[in-house]
Design goal:
Elements (H helix, E strand, L loop, with lengths): L22 H6 L8 H7 L6 E2 L5 H10 L5 E5 L5 E6 H7 L5 H5 L14 E3 L4 H9 L10 E5 L2 E6 L1 H124 L4 H103 L1
Parallel strand pairs: 1-2, 4-5
Antiparallel strand pairs: 2-3, 5-6
Helix pairs in contact: 6-7, 7-8
Length: 390
């Protein structure tokens, strides 16, 4: 038998000897762990005997009988090229015939080997390796898989090894799934808590907006009353200004009349003086007429004196009326400006009311959306709980 024949240094691990990683470790490594599935497959590699292509059947039979744990034999040449795979059970069935010893014992075992076994590189992910093995037909389904590194034989994996690798991958996937669910539960819980805070804030904002809306409506109503009061006062001030203007005009007319009376008094005095002169010329016959002329002259002087007093008084009244008219005009102008400011304030209040109403609408939408988001978060948490139980 060839010097290259070798046995596995250690037995392949049994399925029942495998242990799962602790839950806490999986959770701690969730963010960084990505299983090196090729190294997982390397942990299960078996070293099996390697024979040259010319090795005869009797030697292979002796080799397999010497160790019942050997699942197969790999045929390689001196350049490490793989020529085939001999499975124990298949080889035994071929040599179980009555005349097998005479026919095959001295012939090369290569004729009973599978010339196209499944060969995979050691760095191939274990998941892909298992998929390739499962794709084989039923006649080769239980054959071993040859593992190489850069084309050189590293060992083989049996169906049992593939099952253990599959279970290992499933355990790690479950472990990562549970850790992911735990992390998702925490994140969804945080989201739910944040949504509740937003929902409570939205409700508070909605209440404040409703209070602001009520205050704005009240303020606008009061401002309208102020505006109406300003309108009434402005109307009264305008009427007063017009009346003062009319009064000033009437005072002017009275002053003109007083002037006319003075002028008439002057003419009456002049006529009385002329009448007195004529009465003096008449002598005794003009005495009575002189007395009348004197009375007329006295009455004219008194009328002139009264008209001057009336004129002076009317002058003072006219000045006061003029000043009153100026103040009234200023008051009216100020009232008009105040009315405009009140009108602008009313428009501002209206804008504020509209804005508050919009804020109320948005607040209601936010509150409804927050409530729906919180409900969805609780639903997701319930579903994650169910997944975690599974």
């Amino acid at each position: 038998m060839s010097d290259t024949t070798a046995l596995l240094d250690r037995p392949a691990p049994r399925l029942e000897d495998q242990e799962t990683l602790p839950r806490s470790q999986a959770e701690d490594e969730l963010s960084t762990v990505k299983s090196d599935t090729s190294s997982i497959a390397a942990e299960y590699l078996r070293r099996v005997p390697v024979i040259p292509p010319e090795e005869v059947c009797i030697n292979v039979l002796k080799l397999l009988r010497a160790d019942e744990e050997i699942p197969c034999v790999v045929i390689c040449d001196a350049d490490h090229n793989i020529h085939g795979l001999i499975m124990r059970d298949h080889f035994y069935r071929q040599l179980a015939g009555r005349f097998a010893a005479e026919l095959f014992y001295d012939r090369p075992a290569l004729r009973f080997a599978d010339p196209t076994p499944l060969i995979q590189e050691a760095d191939q992910p274990a998941g892909q390796l298992i998929d390739r093995a499962l794709e084989r037909g039923s006649d080769r389904f239980y054959d071993s898989v040859i593992i190489t590194q850069s084309g050189r034989l590293m060992g083989i994996l049996t169906v049992q090894d593939l099952m253990m690798i599959s279970r290992r991958l499933q355990q790690e996937a479950n472990m990562l799934r549970k850790a992911s669910i735990q992390d998702s539960r925490k994140r969804v819980g945080d989201i739910g808590a944040a949504v509740r805070v937003v929902s409570e804030a939205a409700e508070r904002s909605l209440k404040e907006a409703e209070e602001m809306s009520s205050l704005s409506q009240t303020g606008r109503a009061e401002l309208r009353e102020v505006k109406e009061s300003f309108d009434r006062v402005l109307t009264m001030t305008t009427d007063q200004e017009e009346q003062t203007t009319d009064l000033l005009g009437k005072a002017g007319e009275i002053s003109k009349i007083a002037g006319a009376i003075r002028e008439l008094a002057d003419r009456s005095g002049l006529l009385a003086m002329n009448a007195a002169i004529e009465a003096a010329h008449a002598g005794e016959h003009g005495r009575g007429f002189a007395i009348v002329a004197q009375e007329v002259r006295s009455l004219a002087e008194q009328t002139k004196h009264f008209s001057e007093e009336i004129g002076a008084t009317l002058g003072l009244i006219g000045e006061l009326v003029r000043q009153t008219a100026e103040l009234s005009a200023k008051s009216t102008a100020e009232m008009r400006r105040s009315q405009q400011r009140v009108k602008e304030a009313d428009q501002t209040f209206q804008t504020l009311v509209d804005t508050v109403k919009e804020a109320q609408h948005k607040g209601r939408e936010m509150s409804a959306s927050s409530g729906e988001a919180e409900s969805k978060a609780r639903q997701v948490l319930s579903e994650l709980e169910l997944l975690n139980k599974d």
